[in-house]
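Supplementary Methods S3. Input chains for the assembly prediction are listed below.
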Amino acid sequence: MLLLALLAGCSDPKPLEIGFIAGLSGRVADLGIAGRNGAQYVVEEWNRRGGIDGRPIRLIVRDDGHNPLQARTALAELIERGVEAVIGPMTSNIGVVLASQATEAGLLLISPTVITDDLTGRDDLFFRVLGDSRGYALVSATYQYQTLGYRRIAVIYDAQNIAYSGHWGENFRAAFEALGGEIIDYRPFFSGEAIHFERQAEQLLKNRPDAILVISNALDASLLIQQLRKRQPDIAISTSEWAATERLLELGGASVEGVNSAQFFYRESTQPRFVAFREGFLRRFGRQPGFGATAAHDATEVLLQTIKQRGSRSLKASLYAQNPFTGLQGEIRFDRYGDAQRATYLTTIRNGRYAVVNVQ
Amino acid sequence: MSHSDSLYHSLLRNLLLVAVLPLLLAALVLVPLWFSDMEREVADDNRMLAKAVVSQAQLFLEGPKLILNTVAANIHDHPTASPAMLAAILDDAVEASKLFDALYLSDHTGVVIAAGLPVERNAFRNDYVGIHLGHKPVIKKVLAEQGSGWSETFLSPLSGKTSVALAMAVKGGVLIGDLDLSRLSTFVAELQQPGRGAMIILDRLGQVIAHPQQQLSARQINLSHLELVQLGMRGASGEAAFLWDGVPYIGSVMPISTSGWMALVAERRARINAWVTSASSVFAGVALFGLLLSIGLSTWIARRLARPVEQLAQYANGIAHGNYQLSLPHVEQKELHRLVASMQAMGNAIASRERQLEAGERRYRTIFDATNDAIFIHDAETGAIDDVNQRMQQLYGCSHAQALNRSIEAFSSGVPPYSQKEAEAYLQQVENGGEPVFEWQGRNLSTGKLFPVEVSLRLAEIDGQRRILASVRDIAERKGHEQTLHTLRTYLENIIDSMPSILIGVDARGRVTQWNHKAEQVTGIIRREALGCLLVDLLPDYHEELNSLLQVEADQTVVSHAKVKRYREGQLHYEDITFYPLTGVGEQGSVVRIDDVTEQVNIEELMIQSEKMLSVGGLAAGMAHEINNPLAGVMHNIQVIKNRLDPSLPKNLSEAEKVGVDMAALVRYLERREIGPMMDSVVEAGKRAARIVQNMLSFSRKSEPLFAPCDLSALLDEAVELASGDYDLKKVYDFRQIMIEREYQSGLPEVACERVKLQQVFLNLLRNGAQAMRGAATEAPHFILRVYRRPGWVTIEIEDNGPGIDAAVAGRVFEPFFTTKGVGEGTGLGLSVSYFIIVENHRGELEVKRSRKGPGARFVMSLPTTTIEAATRDKQEQSIGQ
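Predicted structure tokens for the full assembly:
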């Protein structure tokens, strides 16, 4: 007995678990992994400061495989496990699926990057640290029509993530046509291994557009842009903010020079909070934080503060009690539907970096 | 000594200690040893496995390099190969090796000129040809430095899996192979033993690229925050304990030099703990068995050694208790045998000595028990009771044995001053050479009754030992008598003290023998100080009356002085003083009785005043009626005269014309002789007379008063308000400069009264006070207004700090026409009207007194609260009637 007693150490307080769900494999893995790193960074930072009320925080990471069925299973598993709340997902198609599942289970879901219009104006437990796609599409359309003087644009979008790209495309089309421009091609593709990017490029260039808008993830965008630039090196190209990650630069190399993207994220920001984060992140993960990591940082920070100040309230009530929050690049103010609007930045890739050309 | 343990238990305990201690020490030493041993073993295992992983990884990385070399040689051999042919060479290499996802050949700028793909992706070939790879660091490096190099790991655009590229310079360009690292995970998984910890490969950034659970290898899980991994990132190997995902591990890291990666092998600390726990359980089992065995053995040994010693102890105990017939125990040991023989001799000697002692003891006991006092014999050192006699047992209701077992306190009331503490103090006194005799309170143990005793203590030497002899005499009877006497005396004193009069006993020489409570109160001299003093010294103010004492003593008669005036603390008091001769057996003397009859005298005076007022009031009212009629005639006729002299009336003109008087001339005459102002003066005087008469009329209670309940405080406040605006008063004195202090009791009942009349009273008093203060030029003039309740009454006081009213005037202020004001300033009716309103109309009381502090007058009026019920009833009847 004595010997057994000698072996028993003192037990640490039970960790406080929060879930993270995103596509960590397959073609959207870059965004998911960036998001996970952002969330993990915040959790490690909080744990260094002693966690919440002395309890360490544990991030329970699940891969949604960018697949609705796998995502639902993963979320059910997190609900079963009894996590406090979940950060994620990172893509809109999955967001649409999980928002209702989480709300039914009474679980708070804070997404870093889901911007589909499908979830706009819903009073549920789904929150996001940014607004829907209308803002980005409008800024992009205005810039291309007014500043760059394009009149005829061909659009290609990833129908695999239609919840995102469908709205983005339609919003862009509405804004651009309202200005007097013309969408001369509007074609979907299904992200996956069986895409002939060369053929897509050929079709897009056929009607000699002034510019091409790509609404897809960074991997598909980089492959497509390689093909477009191979055929017509001077073709003007823009992307939605989904593609505008570090991976686009990494995979696209010289071929993505001059590509425009509308973003909610300003890499050159000198705000001290952001600079500290960028440096800390670089030390921790050996790479620059992209928009996925930054947005996940904000979402996780919002969640942890909400949990910390919860008291006897529901998490939703606690979140609104503290609204607005300070994000890495400015204030995050949730509206009554759990959406937060942000500034939009238009960037152009110059010398392998995103350079801001205007701020809206 | 009574707490000492038995020999058996002591032996048993020590034997057990000898058995258990080594086990415990062994456990304390072994467990930490096992831990460190196990840790070392795990660390060795980890290191060995890490080495294995490193060699597996290097083997994995060797293959692609060999293949690329072959491909490079092949390309070199076909310098003029077409792009299609180059693609075929690359395709073949991909298919044959099954290692690469794709092979690219780029020109010297990094643009892909040929791509080798697995068969299933051949259709997509054009997606790869022409793309730029020149921006990738490894290609830049290889282009610059020639040779070959491994890229950073990346997520493959083709498969989405973690991949790494091997770049090798060839003539005019670079050969690049994309390697799917999931195969590396498979490699590592083969080394993994089931149930063991982690075995992983990390890239240069500290990201997991190979893991037995393959899906974890594609998630770029970054472990660079672990110090051990940082060590590996610096190209060093080492061991460390670390936490991963909240789980503690012990791990080893070892660099893979080919690619800059590292192998990390770690074991969960829980496994070490589990091993040590199971080893400890085995040890604990063995120890438990040993423990049980030693308990059995120890019990047997202890019993064998302890038994003869126990028997000897019993024998000795028998002797100690006078039992000399016990048989001696049989013992085997030589030492114990000698002990038994000596003990037997000792027993015999003791038995003979005891018989002699018993005889002496019997003699002593007879004497001891024959006395009439209870006797306690105490041990001088401890105070414990050593012996008692029979009388003691009777008196205290206990047996001899009971007496010896108890403390002194048990035979006392136990309440100070009869507790153990005081008893010990007396014993101490004896110790110090005293022989105290004192009273005590004893307790009968069988009845529990307390009884008084007298105790005398002295030191004595009995049986060669110092003892304290306590001789105790029952004094219950004596005490009873004393108590009765005391009670009687107290009772008499209480009677004397309860008298409301000052009662003083004096002996024949004039010295105080009795001084009651009232005397203490009035003179402030307490009884203790007064007794024995000359009465004249104590009451110097009474020296005149005290002369009567001589007469009383001489004649044995009663002498009284009634209503003797005396000022005490500035207040006039009346006293009746009576001297009685002390009749009865014993000493001669007198009794002085002094009664304060001030209240009584005041009441008498008040009654006289009241009677006087009534008769004067009646008289005045009668007079008023008589005066009223002729006055009305005078006033009326003056008005008529004025009318008939008015030249503007036609009747006057016509009548004058008839008698031949020129009206205008008459008017001139009247003006010349100032007839008009004279008539006005008559009217003024008449009005004044009428006012006086009106006031006098209110002295009689002819009219039915209109009583209604009202709040006196509020009414008083209204009067103050009225006084502030009083024009007549304002002419001479600004009432608002007078400070008003209010001391109103809250929650007062309403009182039935005539509001207007009471207000008139308040106003009169306030006005008089204000005028008096002005007249005396009082500094900081103020009124104190009090309204308070006493049983059956509500009392209002109006006090000023003016010059006050001296005693002579005070008796007359309420008389009609009595005034101290100058002629024409007052009618002398204000206060008497007030008096009638309060006393006659309201059945109340009105007195004038001195201010409570300093000079100044204080008018005190009280109204009965009882009439309110009558008033309410009247009102209800009225409303019913309506």
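Residues 7-77 of chain B form the longest helix (71 residues). The mean pLDDT of chain B is 83.
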